[in-house]
Amino acid sequence: MTATAPDTLADGIAGSEASLRKFLHGLPGVDQVGADQRAAMLATRSIKTTAKEWALDLAIRMVDLTTLEGQDTPGKIRALAAKAKRPDPDDPTCPSVAALCVYPHLVPVAAAELKGSGVHLASVATGFPSGQVPLDVKIADTKAAVTAGADEIDMVIDRGAFLSGRYLEVQEQIQAVKQAAGAAHLKVILETGELATYDNVRRASWLAMLAGADVIKTSTGKVQPAATLPVTLIMLEAVRDFRDQTGRQIGVKTAGGIRAAKDAIRYLVLAKETAGEDWLDPDWFRFGASTLLNDLLMQRAKMRTGRYSGPDYFTLD
Amino acid sequence: MAFEYAPAPESASIVDIRASYGLFINGEFVDSADGSPFKTVNPASEQVLAEIAEAGPTDVDRAVAAARAAYQKTWGPMPGAERAKYLYRIARIIQERSRELAVLESIDNGKPIRESRDVDLPLVAAHFFYYAGWADKLEYAGLGPQPRPLGVAAQVIPWNFPLLMLAWKIAPALACGNTVVLKPAETTPLSALAFAEICQQADLPPGVVNIVTGAGATGQALVEHQDVDKVAFTGSTDVGRAIARSVAGSRKKVTLELGGKAANVVFDDAALDQAVEGIVNGIFFNQGHVCCAGSRLLVQESGYDELLAKLKRRMSLLRVGDPLDKNTDIGAINSSAQLERIRTLSQIGESEGAARWTAPCPLPERGYWFAPTLFTGVSQAHRIAREEIFGPVLSVLTFRTPAEAVEKANNTPYGLSAGVWTEKGSRILWMADRLRAGVIWANTFNKFDPTSPFGGYKESGYGREGGRHGLEAYLA
Amino acid sequence: MPDAGGRLAVRKTYKLYVGGAFPRSESGRSYEVTDAKGRFLANAALASRKDVRDAVVAARKAFPGWAGRTAYNRGQILYRIAEMLEGRRDQFVSEISAAEGLSARKAEPYVDAAIDRWVWYAGWADKIAQVHGNANPVAGPFFNLSSPEPTGVVGIVAPQKGPLLGLVSVLAPAIVTGNTAVVLASEQHPLPAITLAEVLATSDLPGGVVNVLTGRPAETAPWLASHMDVNAIDLAGVDNPALAADLERAAAENLKRVIRPAPTPDWRADPGAGRLTAFLETKTVWHPKGA
Question: Is C179 on the interface with B (CB under 8 A)?
């Protein structure tokens, strides 16, 4: 397969609504039952001993530790930032997480806490979680977050526009936010639970990649179903095929509802056996989660001590 | 650093394999009267697992007599509702002991535990449950107003799905009121002998199920026995032919489930990633030891390059090795003889000019192994496109139009199964109408269910197993 | 023999029926057919193995088209056969009387039953799939449907007794489902079979769907039974058990579906669906259900 530069590919197909639609609808279909069964089969992989230790540490390093509640306060953010830097205060060998993910107006608090820690600071933007605000508000939202210190932006796409077939509009919004985000890493949330079909997930993945996403992300966590193995499988196939065609690697973030270490490991297996080992890195695969982290820590303790731990031994933040 | 899966072996200690096994006749294990014992080996380690009695003509005679007596005295006259309860009981015990049986199957056969655990055993139990429910409803099956059992069924099964093939044979036979004498394959007798114990645990009346172990001669003595009313065989077309000859002029009713060389037809508009999974599942499931394996891949030329690239990448992920490791995708080839046949045909494929590609995967040193292999540049005239290899070897051919795909797919003496991959609905139905095969998997492959009839056209045999149609083989 | 009015009758030459045409045997041979009292009736063609070969080629060629007709259309054509047969009722009554030495009154019920049998089987054309096929409730997200399909080319050794009703009783169930047939007619009473072929030829039945050979089944049946492009064989008319076993053995070479001869068939009894299903294959189609 010959590689085409992403810009060239995008220029070729993204010039008009018609050519964009033609491209997206020309992507191979996804058979839902087949995709579900592939994901279910990979979920039977049995990860034990040394492989499990390795996977748990990697999963911790891939966590975007997230709080996106109306109740969030600076105090909450400070506590979570401490946890992000040192997830297990009793164990200095425990790695820190990938990033802390918060609402835009709490970015300044988080930025102060994370400074110099190496933990990235992600902010949701663009009228999270519905995305139902005017474009200029989305851009302002993004700029505010970046200015306040976020180096990663988690934007939502306009699902209404996507579902009504206004692909060009979705693409232009992503491009505009990308420009507003500047050097910050752009994660594009597809909200797959609202896209309804795997065909739509594949098309939205490609649309986001063509528009300049650095990472494609499953969900806001505010809509059910959130992340699922089959949806993540489709997105991993998309980033794999996109790199084959363009040479550019895009990351994947799976978010919402992943609470158990066992589930996190299943996602790692999925990434390894779908996109490949290159994605098994915090730069290319992330978990958007809050409670997952403690379960990862508990399983890690179990591997280290040989006995099962309990929730009392890990901090609730 | 790469994500290397650590070994995750299923514990073999769950099964208790005895040093030697007798024949199961009239409800008990007995010594052979006139056979010489043989050994069954673990194909993954080449270690002897147990010594097995060989049933000679006298033993076969005893077994048929026990089946006849049980047919006349207990099983034949028993109300269907009572037969049903025995079958339900057997189904439950299979579920209770399913992990043990799965491990035993993987040890004796070489198939990966993931498959014996997730495919074989659930289907075995489901098959008994399904036919249990028919036992007292036979007059509603649409096969005539007064369906009657045939009598004593002689059943000979292959080594590729030992317990599942046993279930396909025994469940409908018993549900219909027949009694059986079953011969498992000589390389995989252990799960059938474990099933004999299950019959004991279920208090199945003596003689209803008899298991005689042995090789071809035992099978021949069984199917040619004068007091047998029904012969059911699953295995090679050559042996099926010999059986069809041997029953000529007799009253015996026969069903044969024989070989195949299925075409798996992929159009350029297919759901590509699922098609790749279907191709892989079609030929590498159970090491390719599957009569309905999709061993001839027919790819539309306009989608060839993209599909082949994806297929090779996917094949490179296949994990070959210890059948008891839960992460193994492809286990051991069942016997050295079968391994030799696969090697020979693969060499012929090369010498006939097809291009061979083998997935880069390490193979264990001991045991019988064959890496997933595909041949490109194959034409209809190649032997690897015509003969059943019964191993993890895929022949890739191309076509240009739907009509050409049908023509090539049907250009074989076999007709067991076929696959079609396209996102165009009307084309699926057009293809399904024209493919001459007993099972058509459209946008899927190698799916089995007790309710779904299975069996072939042409030299793939006759009769159906499974579903309502499967009752017909055991009723007059 | 001269007619009552002293006019010399124009006799019919009885030939074979292959691919919709009426050829002589390629061997050029014929044999004498006599009535029940041993009097000469006609010379029938004595088919050879090469006629069997040609008939199988014709049947194979006709198979896709006939199997591909709608069931409704096949039913219509079988009903048309009944109509044509009804129109020739008197001719068959006299042929059967002559062949089997029956009075016309005793022959009539057999002809009537043969006509009615075409009607009975005609009605099956678009019902057998509903009775013999069904949806299967598999434990997964799949559509799963089993449907009957014709087996292919069927060889038929027609009953030696009952030259019309016996023949119709084995031929109609084979073809109504879409199979094509090569029939070896009753050796002793071949004439009604050839007259039936004339009916078939004028009933919109495509050429090659039914091919009728007259002659000695002991000579031709082994070629039919061993033919690798024949998918099934009905041995109804093989009275010799040793020959029947030989033919079944020969049929095993390509796993033909075989109907063994019944000891004492009663062609006037309710035929049931057994002869329909014997030459049907069950095809099961799976497809995932997903959005």
Answer: no
Residue A294 forms part of a structural domain = yes
Q: Which residues of A touch C290 (CB under 8 A)?
A: 31-33, 36, 198
Q: What is the DSSP letter of B75?
A: I
Residue of B290, B100, B56 lying closest to B195 (CA atoms): B100
Backbone angles phi, psi at A276, to 5 degrees: 120, 175
Q: How many CA atoms within 13 Å lie on the side-chain side of B283? A: 30
ipTM: 0.97
What's the rounded Cα separation, in Å, for the pair C213 and C236? 16
Whether chain A has a CB inside 8 Å of the CB on B268: the answer is no
Distance from CA of B43 to the nearest CA of A (A): 23
Instruction: Tell me whether A28 touches chain B (CB under 8 Å).
Output: yes
Contacts of A33 in chain C (CB under 8 A): 140-142, 288-290
- Same-domain status, B140 and B189: yes
Q: Which domains does chain C have, with CATH numbers?
A: 30-288 (3.40.605.10)
What size, in residues, is chain B? 476
Residues B253 and B299 in one domain: no
Per DSSP, B130 falls in state H
DSSP state of C2: B
Residue count of chain C, please give it: 291
Instruction: Kindly write down the DSSP assignment for every residue of A221-255, as one continuous string.
Output: SSSSS---HHHHHHHHHHHHHHHHHHS---EEEEE
Within a domain: A314: no
- Looking up tokens 């076969």 gives B60
CA–CA distances in Å: residue B239 to residues B159, B236, B256, B260:
14, 5, 10, 14
Q: How many domains does chain A have?
A: 1
Residue B268 lies in domain: 263-450
Q: Which residue in the block uniquely carries the two structure tokens 């205060």? A: A89
Partners of B272 on chain A (C-beta within 8 Å) are 28
* Residue A225 preceded by cis peptide, ω within 30: yes
pLDDT values of chain A reduced to their tens digit, one per residue, 317 residues:
445 656 677 777 767 899 999 999 999 999 999 999 999 999 999 999 999 999 999 999 999 999 999 999 999 999 999 999 999 998 999 999 999 999 999 999 999 999 999 999 999 999 999 999 999 999 999 999 999 999 999 999 999 999 999 999 999 999 999 999 999 999 999 999 999 999 999 999 999 999 999 999 999 999 999 999 999 999 999 999 999 999 999 999 999 999 999 999 999 999 999 999 999 999 999 999 999 999 999 999 999 999 999 999 998 87
Which among B259, B291, B279, B275 has a CA at the least distance from the CA of B374?
A: B279
H/E element holding B257?
A: strand B253-257
Evaluate whether residue A164 is within a structural domain. yes
Nearest to B70 by CA among B83, B58, B81, B59: B83
Q: How many CA atoms lie within 13 A of A95 on its CB side?
A: 18
* CATH assignment at residue A168: 3.20.20.70
Instruction: Give domain status of residue B207, yes or no.
Output: yes
Question: Is residue C239 a contact partner of residue C161, using CB atoms and an 8 Å limit?
Answer: no
Rounded to whole angstroms, the Cα distance separating A92 from A303 reads: 16
Structure tokens at A186: 């752009």
To 10 degrees, the CA torsion angle through A312, A314, B3, B8? Answer: -10
Residue partners of B404: CB distance under 8 A and separation at least 6: none
Distance between CA atoms of residues B475 and C282, nearest Å: 17
Whether residue A247 lies within 8 A of chain C, CB to CB, comes out as no
Nearest to C205 by CA among C100, C80, C106, C121: C80
The number of domains in chain B is 2
- Map tokens 């390490």 to a residue: B362
Q: Is residue B5 part of a domain?
A: no
Q: What is the pTM of this model?
A: 0.96
* Residue B290 vs residues A25, B262, B446, C160: alpha-carbon distances, Å: 37, 10, 9, 45
In chain C the first and final C-alpha atoms are separated, in Å, by: 78
Alpha-carbon distance of B329 to B320, in angstroms, equals: 6
Domain around A68: 6-307
